[in-house]
Amino acid sequence: MANAPAAAHALDVLVLLAQHASPLPAASIARELGLPRSTTYHLLAVLVDRGFVLHLPEERRYGLGVTAFELGSAYTRHAPLQRLARPVLARLADSTGQNAHLGVLHGRDVVYVVEERVAGRPSLVSDLGVRLPASLTATGLAILAALPAAQVRALFPSADAFVQRHGVGPTSLSTLRPHLSRTRTRGYAVEEGLVTPGLDSVATAVLDPAGHPVAAVAVTAESTHLAGAAREQVVGKVRRTAQEVSRRMGRREARAH
Q: Where is the HTH iclR-type domain positioned along the sequence (predicted)?
């Protein structure tokens, strides 16, 4: 494992470049990573040779190369979120006896990417690939509540950005904010009949290693199955499922001090 430190340093260089909006000088890379300049230049030379890093000679700076982009594209093609989440969602559906799903934010909509249906339960509109307004769904509210306020404002700049179903749901940012505040206070989102009358949903956000919401886990059931103590039991399982998916995506829980 003699090359392990060098490999770790090379990965540190790539992560550092990915965290900056523009290319960096070698001196800045060396300083931020605490590496000798000679080591930094050697690492950069290898990474440039392999296409992971691009050298901009006129600017004397380094940025991510085409190979790094190809890796990111391959990550997307492999659909890691769906693959990692599907077995966990299946267990959630089995343990609750209710339909479970995973949705991701796409613009102002939620797109459902994993659906685990339970025989005998009501049919849902949230099939694979279906888009629904994020402001109406528990899945969407869970994600929006975990986003910075500025990003939520950018997504919903005016009343025209809001869509209603059955004549109900938030119609402005001022009417959406209380839903997000309650979601943060409770630790989970609730939707009661806004998408389909008689069906309720509870959801919790899935967080990436940086704490950004990448998706949300939800259970949808008839209103009578998500009331009182029954809701609390389902919410506990939804939370644990979201935490497990987050862990599978690389997130580590903060240690208590």
A: 4-66
